[in-house]
Every structure is written in C-alpha cells, then in structure tokens.
Amino acid sequence: MHVVVAVTPASPGSPEPLQTTQPAGHLVPTGDCLGSPFFCVHKRQRHLRRAGIIYELMYDPFVSGRFTVAERSMQAFDTVRNRSFPCDMWRPTEPVGVCPIILLSHSSGGSGPRGYTFLTNHLASHGYIVAGLNHSELVAPELQRWEGETSEQRAARAEAAIASRVPDIRFLLDYVLTEAPLEPAPVGIVGHSFGGWTALASPDVLHHIRAVVALAPGGSSNPRPGILPAKLAFKWGRDVPTLVLVADNDVCLPLDGMYEIFDRIPAAKRMVVLRHADHMHFMDNVEQLHEAVRTSPPWIPELDYLQSEMRPIAELCTGEQSHLFVRGLTVAHFDAVLKQNDEARRFLAGNIQAELASHGVEAFVHAAA
User: Within 13 Å of residue 102, how many CA atoms lie on the same side as its CB?
Assistant: First the structure.
C-alpha cells in the first residue's frame, strides 16, 4: 500500500504543493507536524528538501517494496545431465535498471522453490529477480526414495543428491542469464536447510555470487540421525558477506551446529536467532507444515525423534512473525551488499533486536567468536 502526502509551501510564490508516493510506513511526520512545515529529524532517515520543507523517508525492509511482481514458471532442460528442471522466477513488472539476481535453493523434498513465496515475492517487490528450480533429487528418478532400499543404497543416493546441488545452481544461473537477458548484475543466493548448505557451498565454485543468506543451513560436523551428512569446505577465496538466520528450537538442525557453521564462515558475517521457532518457520504455511511433521510418522526411521521432541506450534512463534523476521533481514542484507545501500548498512549495524521487538518478534544477534 502507498500513501500520497501533499504539503503546501509556506510562502506565497513558492512552487506547487509537492506530492510524494511511498509505501505506507515510509513517510513519517513526527513532532507537531500540523503546526509546522518541518518534519523532525531521525538518525536513520533520509531528508529531501524542497521549498524549505523536510521530508522523512525511513528505510524499512519489513514492508513490501514499491514494485508489483510478475511470476513465471517454465521447464529448463540440462543437456549435459539429461534432466528437465521445473523453474520459477519472480521479478518486478516495471523496468528498474539493473536488477540484482537472487538464486533460491530449497530444502530437501517438499514443494521446491514455491515453498518460499513469502520471501520470493518480497524480494521481487524490492527490485530483485528471484529464480529457483526443483533440485535434482526431485526430478532425477535415480535420486528419489524407493521402497525397500537398503541403508547402503540410501547413503549412496544421499551422496549423489549432495553432489548434484551446486551443479544445479550453476545451471540455474546460466539459465536465468540466457532466459532473461540482463545488464551485468550482482548475484546473491538464499537457501533453507539443505538449500542453506547449498547457498554456503556454491561460492566455492561460482564466483558470480557476492552475497549469501543461509536459513537454518545444513553442514555441521555432527548432524543428527537422518540428516544429510553434507560437508562444507569454505574455499571461497574472497569476501562473500553472509547472513545466517536460525531458530532457537530447531529440532532437526540444533543451534550448536548453527554456531559451528557460523564460526567457520570465512567472510564478513552476521547471525540472528529467532526465538520460539523450529525448522519449518522459514517456509510458507508454517503452522500447517510444522504440525504435519510433528504429528506424522517419520518418512525414514532415523527421524523418529521428531514426534517426541518438536513442540506444538501453539508454544512457538507464529508464521507471521517468522516471515517478517526472514524477509526483512534478507532484504536488508542484499540491499546492503548487492545494492550498496547505505541506509541498509546503517539498519544492520544498529539495534536489530530492538527493531524486531518493535514489530513483535523476539530474536537476538549472535556475536562472532
């Protein structure tokens, strides 16, 4: 939603009243604005002057951006591996000049990139092109679970799925650059769970990637039973600023493993921990997914601890709170790194915990070791 504010100049002969359109919540008059032609100053606000009037435009990554979003689904065929990948793309409908590209990597199984539309639409509304595909384990028959497989066969299939992930992202980036001819644009990546591991592993070989957001990533040295044993080499060879967003009640990928991964990241980094949240809080339909996983029989025997250890969703934060946490901080990170936005940098360098608390979200920033 946008609001239009018109302010009449204070003196005769001044220009016509100035109108400005901004997303609701961005244009913030403070103080006795009805009796004064001035808006008060705030340390995080940009001030625009015209006809002696100050306008405040707050940087707010939590609200939707100013662009409407177009979604498109297509099939992309990889001739090298003989695989056809369903792909989804979200982008602004209006021309915006150079649009940074965000690659999305989903968790293992599930609904692919369409399980994160709360985030993809938000990013696109802020001027990003977001693209994701169904990873190989969802499209290659030899990588899918089958009834009666032995533990050795399951382990071999898991290793093949791990080995396919970064090549999938390389193919996705090549496809996006071919499908949507673009001016040279910076590239970032965001991923959840196995996709979080993918986001952290991809900079080893994809030097286009300049920023990473990892949501509850896999890759710790001591994964729980049933969790893919994917390893992280961190052979980046350059600074790739990284934001790690995790949950304090994640049963699948506990917090101690998140701290271990974070300490190993060889770049500028920041970790924020969402309180009263579990692993499904980073996806669409949080409440339904969480309860489905908590109350359903595990799809492999090694995950039988989920039913006993996961807390009922009524004891955790809401999907609305977790979505605000993820989308706001993700946009701020990409704005700061890929768009070189000074306001986003100041926002992230400020009191993130207090900012989130003002939106009803409990979280804390983990200090690097």
Answer: 32
